[in-house]
Amino acid sequence: MQTLISAESLDALIASGRPVVLLDCRFDLAAPDAGARAYEEGHLPGAHYVDLERDLSGPKHDAEGRFRGRHPLPDGTAFAETVGRWGIGPSTAAVVYDAHGGMFAARAWWMLRWLGHREVALLDGGLKAWIAKGGKLEAGTPHSPGESRPYPMQPDAMPTVEAAAVLQGLGRMKVIDARAPERYRGEVEPLDKAAGHIPGALNRFFQLNLQPDGRFKPAEALRAEFDALIAGRLPGEVVHQCGSGATACHNLLAMEHAGLAGSLLYPGSWSEWSSDPTRPVAQG
Question: Active-site residue numbers?
Answer without folding.
Answer: 242
